[in-house]
C-alpha cells in the first residue's frame, strides 16, 4: 500500500473533486469570482480545466516515482 502510494493518490483525487464541487456551487450561486465576471460560464470552464490539468500533470510524477522505487 505504501509502496504504490494509493492513499496519496486518493487524497489528491479527493481534493481535486472537492475543488470542482466548490467551483460548481460558486458558479450556480454567482458568488466569489463569478459574481461580477462578464462571462461566468467561460470562467467556470477555465477553472475546471485548470483543476483537471493540475491533476493530470501530477500522475506522471507518481508513475516516475513508482518506477524508481521498483528499480
Would you spell out the secondary-structure blueprint of this structure?
Elements: H1 6-28, H2 40-70
Helix pairs in contact: 1-2
Helix content: over 70%
Globally, the shape reads elongated
The whole-angstrom Rg is 16 Å
Catalogue the unreliable spans: none
Number of helices, counting only DSSP H or I runs of 4 residues or more: 2
- The overall strand count is 0
Indicate the proportion of strand residues: under 5%
Which whole number gives the mean pLDDT? 86
Major pleated sheet: none
* SSE string, helices as H and strands as E: HH
Structural class per helix/strand content?
Answer: mainly alpha
Distance from N terminus to C terminus (CA atoms, Å) equals 17 Å
Amino acid at each position: 500500500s505504501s509502496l504504490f502510494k494509493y492513499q496519496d493518490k486518493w487524497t489528491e483525487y479527493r481534493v481535486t473533486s472537492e475543488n470542482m464541487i466548490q467551483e460548481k456551487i460558486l458558479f450556480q450561486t454567482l458568488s466569489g469570482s463569478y459574481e461580477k465576471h462578464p462571462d461566468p460560464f467561460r470562467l467556470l470552464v477555465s477553472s475546471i480545466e485548470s483543476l483537471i490539468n493540475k491533476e493530470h500533470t501530477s500522475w506522471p510524477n507518481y508513475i516516475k516515482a513508482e518506477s524508481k522505487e521498483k528499480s
